[in-house]
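1st attempt posting a full record on here, be nice pls
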Amino acid sequence: MEKVNAWKKYSSEERKQVFDFADDYRHFISECKTERECVKRAVELAEKAGYRNLEDVIKNNEMLKTGDKVYAVNMKKAVVLFNIGTEPVSSGMNILGAHIDSPRLDIKQNPLYEDTELVLLDTHYYGGIKKYQWVALPLALHGVVALKSGECVDVVIGEDMDDTVVGVSDLLIHLASKQMEKKGSAVVEGEDLDILIGSMPAYEESTEESSDNPSDKEEKEAVKKNILAILKEKYGIEEEDFLSAELEAVPAGPARDYGLDRSMIMGYGHDDRVCAYPSLVALLNTPEVSRTAVCILVDKEEIGSVGATGMQSRFFENMVAEVMDRCGDYSELKLRRALACSYMLSSDVSAAYDPNYASVFEKKNAAYFGKGMVFNKYTGSRGKSGSNDASAEFIGKLRATMDDADVSFQMAELGKVDAGGGGTIAYILANLDMNVIDSGIAVQNMHAPYEVISKADLYETLKGYEAFLRM
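the predicted structure (as tokens):
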């Protein structure tokens, strides 16, 4: 079944809408490169659209009614938004779920050291990466440092064009004969992904008391001393403060239009912010609904959705319970009914067919640029292991919804049967008995520092999410 390229159906006005929305998204991923930054921006957009903090509603003992819109934040790294429908929440919700974490390099808790008058930061990579792709790149540092006083210092270094960048060095080809014989997984080892951040010793006026002893520790670590002085002056940070820091090294600079026709976007973090952003905007664009509409954006998917801010936490269930309570319709049984009667699009990216690597794709069941949003009936690997595997009835309902809204969509698998595979948050929500399917956008270079998506697919996905919320 050949799907028509979505670009062919657009009028000049629709094409403008495609490019306008793509510009909005491009700015979003350029400015929001961590989970915290995504949540902060989501809250700003939500409040502008009339959403209120659920915490304030509970504190003021207010009740919620049809048409009310609330959000709740989990530890500044996950957020859920509710648009209360005309039907009771216990009759089910239409849920869009995506993750806002992306593969990167995390700075360790004791990271700073000097070696041969070079200062580096030790890292631990986060999520599935090809480690050799992260060398010889301009990197930026994003995150927070929590001080003992309770203050949290926001850090962004390397994004402004006048700002400095950092990076991981690569071995010159002239000395890399043994390295080039290694397997791809061992070309660069995890412990070799240390980030170079300085090489200039601290400057001090010479005095009679100055030591001339070359073994003097302070002299030997003069470059580190200089770096610490810079951090102290700019951020008020001491070396000890790295112990309570969350700092991420990500590709520096903005996302860019890609292709001579500007039909694509190349940038860091498409997986999965390219699904998170249209999910959020779709909910904010939807004024009235019959079934309560929900968008949840979570952390930690790239490492198994674990922890307090991942999808496996109880945050989502707890917030549904709080909303039902504020609607005057809560009981444990009704909560279970609400979850079991819900529909969910687990919004995550799929692998876009790449002619350069055609051998790992099965053409009839691959996702293609320009063919619209992607539905994956199942993901997983080795015989669908770890997948959700959506029901035929649910897919039939979605097909009708998408066709009625003139949404271009395609069904796909993540490569050939034995070529590999992947997972999403779908199975976690499916464990609550709800109908769930993976859906999202096709991506090339997935998990590389710079990924690529089609603007047409982005726009069709926004339309598809809006149609789903009204379903």
